[in-house]
Specification:
alpha+beta, Pathogenesis-related Protein p14a, 8-stranded antiparallel β-sheet, extended
Length: 168
């Protein structure tokens, strides 16, 4: 009986040491440059410097809610109005307005550090092309990949958001 008690005590000490060592490694890995916990690194899903597409517009434009669920995952929230349904999805904090059951107006609100230039369409899986109308805070494309209109708003050389109108 004494051997079992000694064996259990050794196992408890070994387990406690393993947990302590693992916790120390996790906290070191999550520490920011000043040694504090780096919340952005631990919880941010969008790399602010990435230029990779958040999603492909072809997987989203004109699709039903079920088709969007397959492409973007389940919506974070939805609300229904008299003429439409609006849902929010996590890639890029994307808002989709469904008109007649199809994704018709899309707004992508978080594009990281995407530069406010003609290449920004790549963040939503569209080919880069020259904007037809531009001013200091807006760029507008028409007819890109069969979409009615794509408008980007930006400031300080970065994109604030992109709004896409599929048909309406």
């Amino acid at each position: 009986m004494r051997r079992y008690a000694m064996l259990v005590a050794v196992l408890v000490v070994a387990l406690a040491a393993t947990v302590w060592a693992t916790r120390a490694r996790w906290s070191d890995a999550a520490a920011g440059p000043d040694g504090d916990f780096d919340y952005a690194s631990a919880f941010e899903s969008l790399d602010p410097k990435s230029t990779a597409p958040l999603f492909r517009m072809a997987d989203v434009a004109g699709k039903t809610e079920d088709e969007l669920r397959a492409a973007l995952g389940p919506p974070e929230s939805c609300e229904t109005t008299l003429y439409s349904r609006r849902c929010r999805y996590s890639p890029g904090n994307t808002e989709v307005v469904f008109i007649d059951g199809k994704a018709d107006w899309l707004t992508v609100n978080e594009l990281g550090e995407t530069p406010f230039d003609d290449a920004l369409l790549g963040r939503i899986g569209l080919p880069s092309s020259r904007a037809r109308n531009t001013d200091s805070g807006d760029k507008r494309w028409t007819g890109v990949s069969g979409l009615r209109e794509v408008t980007a708003h930006g400031s300080d050389g970065r994109v604030a958001y992109i709004r896409i109108k599929v048909k309406s």
